[in-house]
From TrEMBL:
InterPro entries: CodB (IPR030191)
Entry keywords, A to Z: Membrane, Transmembrane, Transmembrane helix
TM stretches of this protein: 65-89, 110-133, 153-171, 183-208, 228-247, 268-291, 311-332, 353-373, 379-400, 421-437, 443-462
Molecular function GO labels: cytosine transmembrane transporter activity
GO cellular component: plasma membrane
Protein's UniProt name: Purine-cytosine permease-like protein
Amino acid sequence: MTQYHQEEDMIEDIAGGEFERTPVPQSKLKSWKSFLGMYAGEHAAGTEFMIGPLFLTAGVSAFDLIVGLLLGNLLAVLSWRFLTAEIAVKNRLTLYFQLEKICGKNLVTGYNLANGILFCFLAGSMITVSATAVGIPFDMPMPKLSDTMPNGITWVIIVILIGAVISLIAARGYDTVSKAANWMSPIIVLAFLACGVVALNQLGVSSLSQFWDIWGEGSDPFPGQIKYTFWHVLIWSWFANAAMHIGMSDLSVFRFAKKASSGWTTAAGMYVGHYMAWIAAALLYAVYLKSPEAMTFMSNGEAPPVAPGPLAYNAIGVFGIIAVVLAGWTTANPTIYRAGLAFQAIIPKVSTFWVTIIAGTVATIAGLFPAFAMQLLGFVALYGFILAPFGAIIVFEHFFHKKFGIIKNYAEQANIKFNKSVLLAWAISFGLFYFISVQFDVFLSFVTLPAWLLCGVLFLVFSKQFQKKI
């Protein structure tokens, strides 16, 4: 056994058996049922209580919402099945170790840090969601749509306690995260369904046409929000998880799958979570918008607050509080787990447990600031746009390295720590399309796919130009 492999085994032992730097062995592979529960739990979760109402603040029409989500989520499932899961079962490596083989240790360290921090911010927004439910019995003031800072000591204490519990669950590893999701997801799905039914009753809906009329032809967006059309809904819902599917982050999850067909289980998350749950949560907000409190906000030219806890409590009482807390957990748990893996790649000799606790601490601090949750549509679009092009590096190398005559895993093969082809490809694609988005006021999700494709093509071109024979 070489010294390199001895070091790898030593790191694996310290890491606690999560196979961060070795392929997952056959004995540890999991059936599609493990992924079904995890995806249903993760995507019928805390973000759904925020995103559904935020669509209403963007003035969507009935057709835009219902048909746009139907098609956008289908594209997301296809991306997971035929890109992420396909590559994951071939290599059985985490995203971070796979990128290290291609990019080199020094370059991928910067990516891992950015990736981990962005995941922490997303998890933090879910801690915020859970806190809006826990705060109800304490009569805690809820954050407003425009709030950025903590609004009181009660808020701070609740967020810290929730963050500590979530971090400990995530730190126990993939098995614990998966079991937690399997246990919680049926409860959350039932709660979303119940919320939707109760909200329809509160709105006096008794026919499909009345249901359609809730959104009708759409409306003007609320103050501080942009108008969403059909294409906004379709493209945004496709790329809401861009970092996970075309960005390849879920290589870290599907490396445990027995077959690539496990990728179809993401449909449970998309159509139970990103379809039924988003619409159910939007219905809750539609009920609230008819309340005197919401009308007062609107008459003053302000956007009514989006606080998932009170919205669910108004519909189904204490069960709503429990559902929102669990929903926040089932998103934050795997997100903090992913962030921990990103940090693990930077400091591989520190155990998975402790790097995940670090990630959970960062997420908890982020959760103190409501802006991450209240601006979730924009934040999700931004982090997908930043991270997705790195997935193109893996995808284009995997499928086209032979055709283009480039060396696979070049940084590992050439024993280099910095692959300039990767940096140039990402920087040019990111810089060009971010400039287009800002300069011409183009919705950021609209340029995510062009940036992803350009990054992959440029990587092949630059690799052909700069790679040396080994």
